[in-house]
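Collaborator request log, item 7. Partner lab (contact: R.S.) asked for a structural prediction of Adenosine kinase to inform their binding assays.
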Amino acid sequence: MASEGILLGMGNPLLDISATVDPEFLKKYGLGLNNAILAHDKHKPIYEELVEKYNVEYIAGGSTQNSIKVAQWMLQVPGATSFMGGIGKDKYGEEMKKGSTLAGVNVHYHEDESRPTGTCAVCIIGGERSLVANLAAANCYKSEHLKKPENWALVEKAKYIYIAGFFLTVSPDSIELVAKHAAANNKIFSMNLSAPFICELFRERLEKALPYTDFVFGNETEAKIFSKSQGWEIENVDEIALKISQWPKASRTHKRITVITQGADPVCVAEDGKVKKFPVELLPKEKLVDTNGAGDAFVGGFLSQLVQKKPIEECVRAGCYAANVIIQRSGCTYPEKPDFH
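Returned to partner:
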């Protein structure tokens, strides 16, 4: 049984504005499928255009928050998970708070007076997604919020901490604080490569955080881009996963395990100098609604078993189960109770 506050997440809470679009729309904004980027000036009109042109859904999201909510759903223990990040003092922020609390997550948001709650355009074609994030208030998160006694208490209480790579763009000093705390207190610290642009443009920040990681998650595209950014000249995902698992560690208490998902292909797990493959349950194409949140859901499912000290096989199975549920629904949403045995 998972105890209260056992799992803590920190990241960028965003409101997903999700719609099925046409290829011209992606072309107009220079977007590619199965990618995630930060909004530049040319992308600013995308949010209003989505709402005007298409039938949109508003779903509370943000990569780490998605994973934490899925872990909470899988655990079914109120308050087993906590989350910190930045929102605006506005209607969307209130919605976010309401949704996360209802999901059973103990949220401690920093509420920014001057910036609106961050949004993410989720553009879907044939079930595949392209993400454009406008961080807004999420970008204003500072370690001062983390250091407040009532917030640091969440860090003290947690035995497992998970942060998506996206947070490296916002508050690397917050990541460093919790990573060092985890290493000094024999806790499990996990991160995600998150997106190609994190591996390329925020390489130094990622490299600084990696020694503290006990688990590194990612997908095959991110793994290959990470390899390229390191000058490894390796395309083989198994080999890349192994090399990441052998990256120097700040603390020798735990070994590092790398977990790389590959869509419909087997999940690749590297530990102790070996690679294991775990097949995923294939979903008929007609059942696929959208892949938005699939990777986040996999991590959430995985962590829900990890915090219960289940073997890696069970963690992967739970990750695949959660991802399978999420891709059959719009956005990172789920039924009332899981059906995982």
